[in-house]
Amino acid sequence: MFYHLIMHTGCNLSCTYCDRDDFASPDEELYDYNLSQTITYDISKLKNQIKEDDYITFYGGEPLLALQKIKEIMNTIPCKGFMIQTNGILLNRLEKEYLQRFQTILISIDGDAEATDRNRGKGIHERIMKNISYIKENGFEGELIARMAITKNSSLYHQVQWLLQKGFENIHWQLDAMFYENSSFNWYDQYNLDVKELLDFWIEEMKKGKVLRLYPFLVITDSLRKKEKARLRCGAGFANYTITTNGKISPCPIMGSIKKYYCGELGSSIKEMSVNSPCSECDILDKCGGRCLYANLTQHGGKEAYNAICQTVRYLITNLEEKVPEIESLLKEGIIKEEQFEHQKYNGVEVIP
Fold it and tell me: How far apart are CA 90 and CA 101, in angstroms?
């Protein structure tokens, strides 16, 4: 099992994705507004919940605002691997002994300085890059994953190219859509063109023997080739759960305060959840696995916006399917190898943007 631990509900940044006034309206029956900012449950209860074969991902808000509690958990709870999703600003506070124990660090960075600073704040990009140097210099040898947010002002192709040129080997992206009301989607056509251009580049690199770890491409292609029947790619509600600061358990971090969707609490059994309509009736559900569970269940942007973003997913999968025969040929010729598609499932990446 994979567990996201909400370490701190606050954040030290005011990114454009979160610092806005058009999220869902206040609803006392739906949302839990009494969550504590930091963990209030006894760590011994968490230790009883986590098994040695489980994975722990530290999450927020910004999890490193609760650095001492992170270290306490790492010192107390044995598990198969530790991961963290962070904005990267406080990574330089993690001592070497802890950095070396992380299997995966996912850092929010939107590409070059112009894009990152526009979305996250002036000077943030420079601080992130300095801290990336810091963690490498201090012994982090795990998987470093760039977490991109793509907005209507971003070029997916340009920003992924920038990250690759700067040495990022693992990249995923998420569209700034369907998490709030009044979502606009008039920029999706350009996004699709970027997907196509990036996919063509991905295949050209394969011809040179490189399988770039662009997670949406990598994971979907791997399961298409194996003819796997997909479930939610993030594992939310069946393989991946979130433990809130008060010990309640939700299917994913973004739903951590929605008490309507709580799946249990520390020490109790956990119920499974899955996507509803329209995903449950979609003809490509077994290939896609379903949209974000939060977006599916709440549909804050409305049906039109939901359908629009689903068309981008269909476009992505259709284009990947068309490339499978060529990829199979490259494998058969020995230009690329099966192991280049190996990946850790449910490690927090966005596979369906």
Answer: 17
Cα–Cα dist 348/304, whole Å: 27
pLDDT at 97: 97
Residue 320 to residue 312: CA distance in whole angstroms: 12
Q: Among 154, 89, 152, which residue's Cα sits nearest to residue 115?
A: 154
Give every CB contact of residue 16 below 8 A, 6+ residues apart in sequence: 118, 119, 120, 151, 176
- Written as six digits, the tokens of 14 are 């005011």
- Which candidate, 145, 199, 238, places its Cα nearest to that of 327? 199
Closest CA to 270 of 238, 244, 245: 238
Q: What is the pLDDT of residue 182?
A: 52
Considering the entire predicted model, what is its pTM?
0.95
- The burial of 109, by beta-carbon neighbours within 10 Å (0-12 exposed, 13-18 middle, 19 or more buried), is given as buried
Mean pLDDT per 10-residue interval, the chain, length 353 residues:
96 78 61 88 96 97 97 98 98 97 98 95 97 97 96 94 97 81 77 98 98 98 97 97 96 90 95 95 97 89 87 97 98 98 96 95
Q: Determine the residue type at 219.
A: V
User: 217 CB contacts (<8 Å, ≥6 apart)?
Assistant: 198, 199, 202, 320
Q: How far is CA 226 from the centre of its chain?
A: 23
d(Cα 270, Cα 323) in Å, to the nearest integer? 39
In angstroms, the CA 87 to CA 106 distance is 8
The whole-angstrom separation of Cα 242 and Cα 348 is: 12
Q: What is the model's pLDDT at position 59?
A: 97
Is 301 in contact with 181 (CB distance < 8 Å)? yes
